[in-house]
From TrEMBL:
This is Citrate synthase. CDD domains: EcCS_like. It catalyses: oxaloacetate + acetyl-CoA + H2O = citrate + CoA + H(+). Pathway: Carbohydrate metabolism; tricarboxylic acid cycle; isocitrate from oxaloacetate: step 1/2. It comes from Nocardioides daphniae. InterPro entries: Citrate_synth-like_lrg_a-sub, Citrate_synth-like_sm_a-sub, Citrate_synthase, Citrate_synthase_AS, Citrate_synthase_bac-typ, Citrate_synthase_sf, Citrate_synthase_typ-I. Keywords: Transferase, Tricarboxylic acid cycle. Belongs to the citrate synthase family.
């Protein structure tokens, strides 16, 4: 409790109407520290006031210098660099370096980084055996989640998270091996032989080779496809404190090894509310079937029958900047693969929705998932693989956030409070008496 008259300017004065007492709570970085509310109590045995915020809708869990988003203006920056510039002028591996190290690499640093990643793409032969052990119809995300978690058993030293060199090694390994694990999950689901990494190829070319190579001695990817995939990976590389990143941070806060933390991130991304929306967009477009059916579909959405998938976002109340860039990537991919016939429906749907008062009023714009599924389908990925591509792209972001967490002195093991709603102090009656 403090003297209100002498309160500092950046503070919040709270009056507890239960007691009539007033408290001054400091405002720093436009937030108040939740623990400061703990001093607000009605009596000695009161644990103090807490906040209730399911889904962390209005709670900052960390300080972070990795990614900036302004949802109202539709701005996304990695380490201060606008996503548009990175997508146009950088590469996925350079962006990965930027996210993890906080600044762009020199030529030498970049070459070393690319070399390190390229020469860690192979996995232990036993990994192949356990991927083969999955059922023929196993979902590739389930396989990816299990296999990245299993890597912790191959690198037990990864648990030394206080050692910066050791952390670096594991981050390199994970960025390098995720495409191998993702591609092998895909090949297993297809019943095709696994393709080993080809260290002569770039990151995305190698990934395409591991996915699609058959009997040819060298897989040559169309450069336009490799570039488009690289851009897609850049666009998915980080998105501040989203569900999967929060999962990585939360699990990582127990100081477990990073493979286990990233496996948690893959699990979170697997969910349809997070990584699975592009698949839903594709299903929706197929169901609409032709442009003539759009007005009736839109009416259904406005009546609350269903949602226009790929529209709307918790943070973006403007055009998702990634959606704009993906739309551009569509042109490049379709130049090679031929236009996905669903594109016409998607574009018309977007045009109608952006002019319709229902969507305008609610500030609903296309999000990252609206067009990405069309590209993935044109590249011949089955829908189950869409989220695997997302996971590979997100890996540097997860790791940058994990690394930040580990080196942040303010961080603690994640352990939210609860509001207990259950019974108390019941008397236990043994089974034989209860069932007698
Ligand atoms: C992303 C999403 C979950 C964000 O949800 P949110 O921030 O909790 O927003 P709300 O669900 O509160 O929606 C606000 C209003 O817009 C409407 N709305 C939101 N998204 C909509 C959509 N895609 N289609 C139709 N109406 C939508 C809601 O019905 C609500 O209307 P109301 O105020 O009349 O009740 C939501 O926009 C959605 O479900 N989009 C479709 C799924 C999708 O594309 N997900 C990928 C996200 S990257």
């Amino acid at each position: 409790m403090t003297d209100v008259a002498a309160k500092p300017t950046d503070s919040l004065t709270v009056r507890d109407n239960r007691t009539g007492q007033e408290y001054d709570i400091a405002i720093t970085d436009n937030t108040i520290a939740a623990k400061d509310l703990g001093q607000i109590r009605v009596g000695e045995d009161d644990p103090g006031l807490a906040t209730y915020d399911p889904g962390f809708v209005n709670t900052a869990s960390c300080r972070s210098a990795v990614t900036f988003i302004d949802g109202d203006k539709g701005i996304l920056e990695y380490r201060g660099y606008p996503i548009e510039q990175l997508a146009e002028k950088s590469t996925f591996l350079e962006v990965a370096y930027l996210l993890i190290h906080g600044e762009l690499p020199t030529k030498e640093q970049y070459e070393n980084w690319v070399h390190e990643i390229t020469y860690h793409t192979f996995v232990h032969e036993n990994v192949k055996e356990f991927v083969q052990g999955f059922r023929y119809d196993a979902h590739p995300m389930g396989m990816l989640m299990a296999s990245v978690g299993a890597l912790s058993t191959f690198y037990p030293e990864a648990v030394n998270i206080a050692d910066a060199d050791n952390r670096h090694m594991q981050m390199v390994r994970m960025i390098a091996k995720m495409p191998t694990l993702g591609a092998w999950s895909f090949r297993h689901a297809q019943g095709k032989p696994f393709v080993y990494p080809d260290n002569d190829l770039s990151y995305t070319e190698n990934f395409l080779s591991m996915l699609f190579k058959m009997s040819e001695s060298k897989y040559v990817a169309d450069p336009r496809i490799a570039k488009a995939l690289d851009v897609l990976l850049i666009l998915h590389a980080d998105h501040e404190q989203n569900c999967s990143t929060n999962a990585v941070r939360s699990v990582g806060s127990s100081q477990v090894d990073p493979y286990s933390a990233v496996a948690a991130g893959v699990g979170a991304l697997f969910g349809p509310l997070h990584g699975g929306a592009n698949e839903a967009v594709l299903r929706m477009l197929k169901r609409i079937g032709s442009k003539e059916n759009i007005p009736a579909f839109i009416e259904g959405v406005k009546n609350g029958d269903e949602r226009l998938m790929g529209f709307g976002h918790r943070v973006y109340k403007n055009y998702d900047p990634r959606a704009k860039l993906i739309k551009k990537a569509c042109d490049d991919v379709f130049e090679v693969t031929g236009v996905n016939p669903l594109l016409e429906i998607a574009q018309e749907l977007e045009k109608i929705a952006l002019e319709d008062e229902y969507f305008v009023k609610r500030r609903l714009y296309p999000n990252v998932d609206f067009y990405s599924g069309l590209i993935y389908e044109a590249l011949q990925f089955p829908p189950e693989m869409f989220t695997v591509l997302f996971a590979i792209g997100r890996t540097p972001g997860w790791l940058a956030q994990w690394n930040e967490l580990i080196t942040d002195k303010e961080q603690k093991i994640a352990r939210p409070k609860q509001i207990y709603t259950g019974d108390r102090e019941l008397t236990f009656v043994p089974a034989e008496e209860r069932w007698a």
